[in-house]
Amino acid sequence: MMQRARDLDAADPIAHFRDRFDLPEGVIYLDGNSLGPLPKASRERLHQVIDAEWGEGLIRSWNELPGGGGDWIAMPQRVGAKIAPLVGAKPHEVIACDSVSVNLAKLIGAALSLNPGRNVVLSEPGNFPTDLYMIQGQSQVEQRLAERDQMIDALDEDVALLLLTHVHYKTGEMFDMERLTRAAHDVGAIVLWDLSHSGGAVPVDVNGANADLAVGCGYKYLNGGPGAPAYAFVAERHHGDFSQPLTGWFGHAQPFAFSDEYEPAEGVKRLLAGTPPVLAMAALESGVELIAEIGMEALVAKSRALSEFFRECVADLDLDLVSPRDPAQRGSQLSFRHANAYALSQALIARGVIGDFRDPDILRLGFAPAYLRFVDIAEAARHLAQVLETGEWQRDEFATRAAVT
Amino acid sequence: MMQRARDLDAADPIAHFRDRFDLPEGVIYLDGNSLGPLPKASRERLHQVIDAEWGEGLIRSWNELPGGGGDWIAMPQRVGAKIAPLVGAKPHEVIACDSVSVNLAKLIGAALSLNPGRNVVLSEPGNFPTDLYMIQGQSQVEQRLAERDQMIDALDEDVALLLLTHVHYKTGEMFDMERLTRAAHDVGAIVLWDLSHSGGAVPVDVNGANADLAVGCGYKYLNGGPGAPAYAFVAERHHGDFSQPLTGWFGHAQPFAFSDEYEPAEGVKRLLAGTPPVLAMAALESGVELIAEIGMEALVAKSRALSEFFRECVADLDLDLVSPRDPAQRGSQLSFRHANAYALSQALIARGVIGDFRDPDILRLGFAPAYLRFVDIAEAARHLAQVLETGEWQRDEFATRAAVT
Fold first, then answer.
1. Is B405 flagged in the annotation as binding?
2. Which residues of B touch A359 (CB under 8 A)?
3. Nearest CA in chain B to A47
4. DSSP B193
5. Parallel, antiparallel or unpaired: strands B230-234 and B213-216
6. Hey, of B50, B136, B144, which one would you mutate to test binding to chain A, going by the most A CBs within 10 A of its CB?
7. Is B233 annotated as a binding residue?
């Protein structure tokens, strides 16, 4: 397998992008679907923002600085415009701001504003928790949950919004965005796609699917840094009509007029609430630029090749794959069910293979294509085989749960 | 004046803390009330978080790292606990998260949950815009505005929440927190204080005043960096009862159980929504530590001395002070009304004296005590006198408004 891995690496047209990341020694990182690693350019960009823009430019950096840089005021839209082509959106349809959770509250509100008289939000049980929790927090909303195979039947004319996560965080299963969007539109519902496990890893075409709204995460496949700002998409056709409830001053048509009456800015800019987190936004911008430079087509092809190669490497092991077998039907991850998944994940981490565990019994391995090599995949598979063979996962040290699992 | 300034600096017990900041050459920075400067320790801390925690620790940094550091999961509460004593709160009553705007939405919702059956939120015209806008965004809320001298009369049993900014962003006027809180409680209203222009600059004692809720800004006097996370306070007596609408996964009692049903975490932790912005949170923590090290008593004393000294230096100029004359009645700023305030502020900036302008006619000068010297004050006053005397502010170049003013 190792020779085949080396051959695949030699033929990989985006292999050299690995050097653009700062990856720790002795680690095979299969958790880029949870937190992407540090791009070297992001370190440089952060140093520049810290020293030149915050330290030296101070308040002046809200405007463009004479020698370039600054222009903090434009960051949310500028970063959004760079994310847009990665998910099939137009540049002015995406903005970077706040967290996925906070953006969900805004877009649930936007859906209600576009669909007055309806109050049901339909989703699936087992969706990423924050998607469900944010529905539950809105007092005017009624939550309805349906299993995947009953989703279309659960759509009716009470449904204001269908809120689904495109790629399931736990299993990696992918919804057919176009089909579900069409079905929702057939009953007059708005659709909101959570792209957190999709953007930068799988083909996404929000406009091709005629989606209305979307949110996505900045710190997974976009490598924007821990807790990076999220992004939000509103289809252009809704720009004139939607409102959202978190009407902060940065979403005002003229924030620096300091008027008493809220007046929404044009388009997605009205999704802004408070002052953008400049340091975090700069790291996100740098991460997005790198993914855009590599290009989605090459990333998708390699993502599929990596995960298929892993399947090949572990074909002889007794593993219960819960992700779809067809790589076009899943995200950039493979998830395995095992009664001792937590201990397994810890035993792998002790060997330098960092994947993760999802309650109660899922071992989740992510295959971020921007920096992983096929030799990493072969090595990770070898470690997994040894962990299972030796039973070393049964050691006491791997049983104690950490605060964050 | 310059000799007096030098004497005052020589006698200043916290003068040496200036060296803990990285201030640009040739600049007198009177805008720390808008964006605080870069503490040297924050640069070091950010480098460490970028390299050791993100780059090397990766996902493992959510837990405490073996050699120390990491523990990202605890940051919002840890940073909140460090802010708490600066505003008279107990450590477990404050949490750092999101922006002031987003936290206002949460706490308006919290007030309604504590005061069912009422829906009026009372504030004042001319409050900082985002405070009013966030009221206006909540569809179930009725906004009522009253001028300062009619505020207590405007309180009645329809008022769910009195939402005021402790120190006015434009004029620097300070509300009597204790008196207004008592008046609100007399009619059964909850009180929410916006401490954005107070925390780290003036004496604040939320528990002494019996306040219910508060929010504050991280990037002004706390020097947390551009767009730093904000903080939110909920008095302990409400911890068992309040709910808030932005029910994201980080505010769940067991976020990593990934259950479908939202169950709020204990106390202020339920104010969390999405994943905390780690880089921004680290810079805020470092900024707060420095302010805490200097100590509020010394900061308040110097703040008053600096602004009084400025008043003395400009006593002979024809200036229309809109801030209260009694330093105990104002924030750490002096604001002057002038028909050409924008051009004046630009002419000062051209001389290296950075203050700011607030629409339509306010020149605002902030006196952040942690790093300003009395010689800076004397110099700034001298520049202001010259700008007025020479009329250089009338130059065309100072008339064109920048994007951010």
1. no
2. 256-258
3. B47
4. E
5. antiparallel
6. B50
7. no
Q: How does pLDDT run along chain B (405 residues), one tens digit per residue?
A: 899 999 999 999 999 999 999 999 999 999 999 999 999 999 999 999 999 999 999 999 999 999 899 999 999 999 999 999 999 999 999 999 999 999 999 999 999 999 999 999 999 999 999 999 999 999 999 999 999 999 999 999 999 999 999 999 999 999 999 999 999 999 999 999 999 999 999 999 999 999 999 999 999 999 999 999 999 999 999 999 999 999 999 999 999 999 999 999 999 999 999 999 999 999 999 999 999 999 999 999 999 999 999 999 999 999 999 999 999 999 999 999 999 999 999 999 999 999 999 989 999 999 999 999 999 999 999 999 999 999 999 999 999 888 888
**In chain B, what is the straight-line distance between the N-terminal and C-terminal CA atoms, in Å?**
31
A252 is in an annotated binding site: no
Give the domain ranges of chain B.
Answer: 2-30+296-398, 73-293
Supply the CATH classification number for the domain A2-30+295-398: 3.90.1150.10
Nearest to B242 by CA among B97, B107, B401, B53: B107
What residues contact B250, with CB distance under 8 A and at least 6 apart?
A101, B76, B272, B273, B274, B275, B276
- Catalogue the active-site residues of B: 128, 194, 219-220, 364
Domain at B73-293, CATH from 3.50.50.60, 3.40.50.1100, 3.40.640.10, 3.40.50.150? 3.40.640.10
Note whether A271 and A283 are within 8 A (CB): no
Annotated ligand binding at B101? The verdict is yes
Closest chain B C-alpha to A377 CA, distance in angstroms? 19
Please provide the CATH number assigned to the domain covering A76-293.
3.40.640.10
Inter-chain residue contact A24 with B248, CB threshold 8 Å: no
Secondary structure of residue B194 in the 3-state scheme: strand
Across the A:B interface, residue pairs with CB atoms under 8 Å apart total 286
State the catalytic residues of A. 128, 194, 219-220, 364
Homologous superfamily, domain B2-30+296-398:
Aspartate Aminotransferase, domain 1 (3.90.1150.10)
Q: Say if the Cβ atoms of B249 and A99 lie within 8 Å.
A: no
- Segment A264-301, tens digit of pLDDT: 999 999 999 999 999 999 999 999 999 999 999 999 99
Distance CA B387, CA B390 (A): 5
Q: B59 vs A219: CB contact, 8 Å cut-off? A: no
* Bridge partners (DSSP) listed for residue B143: B121
CB contact under 8 A, A50 and B55: no
